[in-house]
Amino acid sequence: PIRAFLFDLDGVIVDTAIYHYQAWKRLANELGFDISEEFNEQLKGVSRMDSLDLILAHGGLTLSDEKKNELAAQKNQWYLELVSRMTSDDILPGVATFFSQVRKAGLQTALGSVSKNAPLILERIGMADAFDAIIDGTKITKGKPDPEVFTKGAAELEVSPAECVVFEDAVAGVEAGKRGGMFVVGLGSPDVLTQADLVAPSLNDLTVDQVLTKAQ
Ligand code: G6P
Ligand code: MG
Fold first, then answer.
1. CA 198 to chain centroid
2. Which tens digits make up the pLDDT trace of 176-214?
3. What family classification does the UniProt entry report for this protein (predicted)?
């Protein structure tokens, strides 16, 4: 049976995905090129440094590690400026209702985000206590599509991968969940999240019962 739901943060609980995109776009523009929304799909769920590497390759640039650290820090500063104004109003539609259904169903929850800013964002939106386990970018060595962030979440909750459902908006995140041996709900477009076991536009379009029926 399913015993735990594991949630990505950016683009699932809160729409920070747009802020990551805006900050990366600003960086790319300063470097003399642009990144499209379509290209940005590849960046979703991918760690800060891996994202920068993809962006630099896209712009045909090779830079020193020192310069890359500087650019990553700059992007994060812009990103933090964007998220500093967030409040609980920024929680995505349907999240509160879905979480109350999750509690009623007696399921455990974990956050599985490769973002080092995840605790700060949870604090800002008033969801710091909403999860039984929190795995963020400071607790992992490999970002998505590696399954580490989700397998660690399952381990902390003391459940097996087969007892978990992952909720993801990113191609890399869906792959991470699948590689971890979990049922994956993709939130977004079925044309993009082709590896997901079930796809819906957002948590607002799903009930816990629907997910459990499909997953077990
Ligand atoms: C999430 C986002 C990515 C972001 C990554 C690292 O997975 O989807 O866009 O690059 O976290 O976030 P951070 O806040 O540590 O730079
Ligand atoms: Mg995401």
1. 17
2. 999 999 999 999 999 999 999 999 999 999 999 999 999
3. Belongs to the HAD-like hydrolase superfamily. CbbY/CbbZ/Gph/YieH family.
8 Å CB contact between 43 and 27 = no
Q: Which long-range contacts (CB under 8 A, 24 or more apart) does 116-122 make?
A: 116/48, 117/76, 117/79, 117/80, 117/83, 118/9, 120/83, 121/9, 121/14, 121/16, 121/83, 121/86, 122/9
Measured between alpha carbons, how far is 41 from 171 in angstroms, rounded to an integer?
7
3-state secondary structure of 130: coil
What ipTM does this complex have? 0.97
Predicted confidence (pLDDT) per residue in 10-68, tens digit: 999 999 989 999 999 999 999 999 999 999 999 998 999 999 999 999 999 999 999 99
> Containing H/E element for 163?
none
- Check if 199 has its Cβ closer than 6 Å to any atom of ligand 1: no
Please return the burial class of 61, using the count of CB atoms within 10 Å of its CB with bins 0-12, 13-18 and 19+. Answer: middle
Q: Give the C-alpha distances (Å, rounded to integers) separating 123 from 14, 53, 87, 110.
A: 12, 29, 9, 15
Residue 8 annotated to the active site? yes
Question: From the CA atom positions of the chain, what is the Rg in Å?
Answer: 17
pTM: 0.93
Q: How far is the CA of 125 from the centre of ligand 1 (A)?
A: 17
pLDDT of residue 108: 98
